[in-house]
Amino acid sequence: MEYLRNQNQDISTLSGVGVAAKASYAELGITTYSDLLLLSPRSWEDRSQVRPLGKLGDGQVANTLVEVLSHSYFGLKTGKKRTLKIIVRDASQQGDGRLSLLCFGRNFLEKTIRIGKLYYLYGSVSLHRGELQCSQFELYPATEDGDFPKQFGKILPIYPLRGSLSQRLIRTNIQAILSQVSQFSDELTADLKQRYDLLDTDQAIRFYHNPPTLEALEQARKTLAFTELFYLQLVARRHKGLEQRSKATGASIPSRLELACIETLPFSLTRDQLSSLKEIRQDLDSDLPMNRLLQGDVGSGKTLVAWISALHVLGKGAQVAFMAPTELLARQHAESGFQLLAKLGIRLAFLTGSVKNKERKLLLQAIAEGEVDIVIGTHALFSKEVVFHNLSYVIIDEQHRFGVEQRLALLEKARVPDLLLMTATPIPRTLSLTVFGNLNISTLHTMPQGRKSVITHLVNEQSRKRMYQAVGVEFTRGHQAYFVYPRIDDSGESDLRDVESMYEFLKSEYPSVSSALIHSKLEEEKKVSILKDYQEGKLGYLVSTSVVEVGIDIPNATCMVIEHAERFGLSALHQLRGRVGRSHLQSYCFLVFGNELTEEAKQRLKVMKESTDGFYIAEQDLLIRGPGELTGTRQSGYLKLIFASLTEDLHLIELVRTEADRILASDPGLVKAEHQMIRSVLSAAPPFEEESCDA
Ligand code: ADP
Ligand code: MG
Hints:
The two termini are 30 Å apart. Residues 240-249, 627-638 and 686-695 have low confidence and may be disordered. The chain has a seven-stranded mixed sheet, with no helix packed on it. It is globular and about 95 Å long. It is 36% helix and 17% strand. The protein is built from 23 helices and 22 strands. Helix 10 (271-285) packs parallel to helix 11 (302-314). By secondary structure, the protein is α/β, with parallel strands linked by helices. The chain binds adenosine-5'-diphosphate and magnesium ion.
């Protein structure tokens, strides 16, 4: 896609794009020609085939030439305005039949749609008591010369809209770009195009926005999806540290340190923890770099596996870096790591932005001289100032919070042999085949013994009171709770319960229970001290924005109340719910929802109610959001695919993967003449950007 991505002209140079349109485009993430070219239509309307009135049934779509027969009015006589009804007959070669156009709110059409004239009509019809009707329609006057109006006789792309944008503007803008660029360079080899019946890139992008036939559209989409997946695959595969490793040989045995650590645990490891540890150990002992994903639902005990695995290399004098997506979480890991490992003589250091001046200098020096065994921190661990003595193993927690590209950038920088990624957002099979192409996966399917699965209640306004009572009962048992809200302060949307006012409300609801308000705008130190008090049981509940989403581990918390649950995505809801149910105590999750639910929101809540299985939830997430809707937002962490669909293109993904492998196997450096094109497309790719990824 790299050539298609390189059209950097600003869209405001296009005619019709003023301040308002520019702002609306920005809402869709569109600022350049490329962004607009790569805007995928939501759907296409097939207006290439005439569909005469006589052959239509209820719910079908009319697409034909009509003649206007009469105007009349209908509706209540009670003083209200009556509605114009235009009766038309089919005037195409192929058809007959009549249709009533109901002009709700469009009585002005009486003046423009004239009796006896011919128009092109498009709209979906319904059948009422034998009368064919249509209330959502488009009419365009037929011209003398018999040419179709622009909107007819073709397959029309329907783009997603925002603000002041109209289909017309987007279509015109895209056509303008397509006519300005005489030819887009090709991105696939002749061999691939021939074997898979694919188009030239130039042809494909033109057909995609302007398909002459449905077959051409499908071929265009397939070409673009193939190209997109192909380069994604190549980038992932060629990346250092992502080489396929062979199945490890020999039985790796746990080191003395590991055994000593396991010995100190008050519980025994789950079977999956043991087998994951074994897999990691084998990778660490092999001379190929480890590239492994440890996936397991929230609370399944991944962190512990990571610590123990770190001991495997520490025995050999190496250093380990442990990275978390937020400072809060990094601090928590530092604490748990310290508790677990310090008594074994392991030297841990927590590196954060708040360690400053002299202290920082000393810490950096100790890391550089190998006086620290494990360094814990955020992505700042990989900034230039941090120099390791012998960094050989990097562990990244909640890796889905880091974008795919950011992660690759980080690997580039770290150049470490061994990498363990942890995620509680399981990667659907299709995804693990793409960008995670060469990742080996260890999975914790089972929860530690004695865990009860969280009971989830859907709560509407009527049952809100009962919920407060239920949470109150948990307080009397000495358990703790979280109340989570989507926003910080009240900015006018009256139905939104904002944290601050709810905090006040809850204080009066539970006068004898101490509490605190926590949100992302608080100073880091304040957050830390609140969490510490909560952890020590000095606070009964936290009222918070989704700060608590990731990783916080407080086993005594048994209630998670999520307000406006309909506003959260599935993976966020699952993460939030995972903050409870972390001990033998029975826990509860209350999903409070408002009156107006979209169909998607209903489905999400239903999924949450019926399952606590993160794998199932991730799959459902993909299905509900569907192809094209998978944005690379922080919340989902998935990469953004434009043309390919993770739910529907499994076959194509597998095929592309095989092709990419075949090419790299025969020509790892892509130096052969026939791969020249692939190499230059790859080198046209923009460099990875680093962004801040604090929550
Ligand atoms: P994850 O990172 O997968 O969400 P954690 O590693 O934070 O899970 O573990 C959650 C909690 O379960 C921690 O308090 C941890 O000490 C505890 N734990 C981990 N493994 C076990 C086990 N095998 N048995 C009992 N508790 C465990
Ligand atoms: Mg965790």
